Every structure is written in structure tokens, then in C-alpha cells.
Amino acid sequence: MSGLLNTIVKDKSQLKQLSEAQLTELCAEIRRFLIEHVSKTGGHLSSNLCMVELTVALHRVFNTPQDNIVFDVGHQCYTHKILTGRADRFETLRQLGGLSGFPNPTESEHDSFIAGHGNTAISAAIGIARAKKLKHEPGTVVAVVGDGAFTGGMVYEGINNIDKLDNLIVILNDNKMSISKNVGAVSRYFTRLRTSKEYHSAKHRTENMLDHLPIVGQGIKSAIVASKTMLRRTIYNSTFFEEMGFQYIGPLDGHDLEEVSAALESAKEYKKPLFLHAVTVKGKGFTPAEQNPGAFHGVSAFDTAQVPDPDDTITDSFSEAFGKKVTELAGNDTSICAITAAMKYATGLHHFKKAYRERFFDVGMAEQHSVTFAAGLAAKGMYPVVALYSTFLQRSFDQLIHDVNLQNSKLLIAIDRAGLVPGDGETHQGIYDVAFFSGLDRFPLYAPLNYAELDYWLEQLVGHKNGPAAIRYPKGAENASLSAFGCDKSLYRRLAGDGNAETALVTYGAITAQALKAVQQCENNGQAVDLYNLVQLAPIPAELVEALRRYPKVVLAEDAIAHGSVGTHLGDKLLAAGYHGIYRHRGLPTTGIDHASVSELQKVYGLAAAELADFICG
To answer: What residues are annotated to the active site?
Structure first.
């Protein structure tokens, strides 16, 4: 760190003393800092570059932790972390034991709420603001919401419940909409007028004067308010937010620190919730990110001297293999539709969109809607394939139960990023889906070992359309050692051992590669182990339970939560079948899977080869 940034990091109160020129230089330093560090650790770049001025303005006007800032989604909080005492730890961002890429109250008192999923900030901010009122605590609560979050229904549920919270501000960080020059110029003029202290003083004096005029005062005041509101609505097109109870300001230039600061200062004069609409440029200050913000949304480490070509997309991954296969199947079956929630590239469904645009649906950050929408399509004879990250699918649990399972809808849920994932940490781990699908009686769940099994089971599930089904697969490419096994079209199979060992190890998915190494280590130590790999996780094949009954010792390992996943159900089935041997189960805890690489997480939780071998042989 250098210059102004070093000064501010040591004493954030100095922000209020900086001149306009110094603030401009500070923001430039923060951008250089972000690019330098994120290029080394990976992380969310575009969204943080566009938030620099907004965040600096927030910390000039408000004082955390007395005032609370709630981010939606939390990956836009890096400047906030820099300004709240964590700049010297940025080389640990998203690393094992280091800074989280999202807000986390256990990391800092300046972080108000964990926010790894979208659409949550307004509801959380309302709750915090209401609690402040009930406890007579001072301070303002600010929800910073990206425009993408407004595609999710929870935003509107929150807005519907703002009541008259005069300690609440919602900032729309709008980095997609274009604002007309003429309308923008006029609205900026009125915004400056409305956010000036002189305006508020004059406004309050006039209102007080009219209130004290007998008979005609209230009538004149109502007429002025009505005409002013009509003009404002014409200029701002803000009817919705004002009808919901907000005082609307905007659109502002989100990179104009003085303008944003003035608007935030004026918020203290309002006696109702404030909605501030700020327009920003995603990737601001880094030309490659400005030109292609999507490619620099979430990045791995990169060389700033050789910026990666945004057109060089990842072509070897389960997501890509899935997207291409579903597109191929749709060529022979016009009932197949594809649905995703703002993730068409990440889930591989951009291939489907290109080939069959009329049957492709991106519903935005609305996972609940995606599942019920799919059930509606299925009710009229279409066959929807819904591709969601495991962590975001959690938001649709009620819809899976009520709208799909209960009605035996014919559709497929494709669960991307299943199991342990790197970098993003506890908010993004795909470790819960096995447990909740295992509890749904009409919802078989599959976990292909490699691309060959993925292809085969997609053909079977989409081809037969027997009812609802789900298929899960990890982030990234297939493992070379697992690819070699191909596909034998069975629900489970023995991958190692001759069937005569005293111990059986059962596993599935990505950690099977570690299981193979663990079995080899056991054999090197003189203990034979038969390794079974499951493809159908729920319901567990009865034939496997019968085959395992003869082993004196059965061990199950999985990168899903231990409670309620395959290990729990296999143990129950073995017990019901009269099994009297030793049964051991290793899975993951239900919370607190931190940010690190997958290999580091496997080691920490005993799923790496060496630790797994010790568990099997112990």
C-alpha cells in the first residue's frame, strides 16, 4: 500500500477530510490494489471495481459498526474490507485460513451479515433496522443491492415490508441500464437540488408555514405535493419505489463521489426509507474487465501483463459436457427445454440457447421460480432440464417437495458444482443436495463418475421420462484416473479389489479418485479393500446392500454432509437387513466448510487419500 490508501487504512476517519482531488486519487489507488491482489489470489473483480466510489462514499458518510452495511451479493464487498482494517491480509483472500470473499461477522464487526446468495440484503436490512428501533439503538442500515438481484422475488417481498423505517437506505448498484443523456442531465439537476441542505431547509420552512395557515394551508400543501410528485415521477419513472413507501433519489452517477456523498448525507433529513439509484460501470478502471465484465466476474489468478482472453472459455468440464449432451438430445426431442438462473455459461447451457433459443429460459436469480416454472412446463407435456449450482438449488427445496415431487413431474434437475468447491467457502459448498434428495420418495439421484457415465445417464433419464430425477456432478473436469473406467451402465460397480476382501469401501463422485489411492495405500500396508462406486445415490440399490452384508467391515466416504446423506441411509438399510459387522461413515459437517482449494479441504476433513486410508484401516 502507498500514499493515501495507507493513511486511510490506518485511520478511516481521515476520509471525511480529503479533498475531491484526493478522493479521486484514493479511488485510483484502491483499484490498483484490487487488481494487484485479485490477480494473485483469484476472486470477484468486475463487481468490486465498480463499487469503489460507492463504498468510499458510504464510509465517508456513515460509521460502521454503529451504522450497518448489508451487501447483496456479498462478493462486491472488497473495498469495504480494505477500508475496515483488512487490507494487510488481502494476500490471503479466499485462501485456507485467510480472508473470506464475502462479508462475515465472525471476521469483522464491520460486516453485518453473511451474503453469499442473492436477493437477501433488503430483508436482512429491514430486520436489522427494525431491531435497532426496538432496542433504541442509533445508526442507519444500508442495503447495497446489485441490479441482478432484482430478478429474484425475495427483493420484492422485502420491499413490501419496509413500513416506515426512517433508518433504512437501499442503494441500487445499477451497472447494466443505460441512462439517456437528456433525462440523466435533468434528473441529476433535480437530484442535486433535492439533496442539498438548502433544499431541505426551505422545504421544511414552507411546510411549517402552510401547516399554520388556517383553512387553506393544508389544501395548498396537498396541491404542491401532488404536482411535485407527478413531475418527479415523469422525470424519474420511479412510481413503483415511491408507491412502495420509499423516497427515491436518482439515477446518480455512482462514480461521482461528491454526488453520492451528498445524496447519502441528505438521507439523514428524510423521515422515510430512502431508495438511491446509482449507475456504475462494471469493471471500472480495468479495460479488459470493462470490455467484458462477465469474463472478469469471478477469476482465477492471472498475470496482469498477459490478461487472459475472454473468448478463451473453459471447454473441458462437467458443465460443458452436460450442456453439449442436453443440446444434442434436444435435437431429437422437441419437448426438451432448458432452464437456468443467470448461469447459462457457467452451467454449459449457452450451447442449448444458441441451438434452440425458443426452448431456452434464463429466469435470472430466481431459483424457486425456475423449479415451479419447470413443473408447469412438465404439466403440459414438455420435458424441462433445470441446471443450477448445488448451493443455489437449496433455495428451491420447498418447490422440489411441493411442486415437483408431490406431482411426480417429469423433469430433470442438473446439480452443478456438487460437493466441495474452492475459493467461495461456506456459502457456496455443494454439500446439502444429497441429503434433501434422499428424503424425496419420487426423486432418484445420480452421480456419474466421468463424462461417459454423464452421457449415458442423461440419455436414460431424458429418454425414458419416468418422473422427476436429479443428476449431480462436480466443478471442473473429469479426473483422468476415473475417466479410464468408462461406463458399464450399472447403478453401482466394484472398481478395485477381487470381491474377497474383509473390508468394503463405498463412495461416489469426485472423491472416488482419492478413494482409489486410499485403497492402494491400504493394500501396501497389507490390508485388502474392495472399492464400490455408487452411481444411483437415492434410492440406494438393494443389490448393493445385499452384496455388502457379507463384509465384516463396511466404510462409506462422501463429500456431502454426514447427517442425512448416503452414509446415513446405507447404515439404516444395512441395519434393517440384519448386518452385524462394523460400519463406519465419514462425511462433512453441516456448517463451516471454509474457503480453500478442494485438495486442502479434502485433507482437512479426512477425505484425502492418506487420511481416508487411516480411517479405513483404523
So the answer is: 282, 367, 395
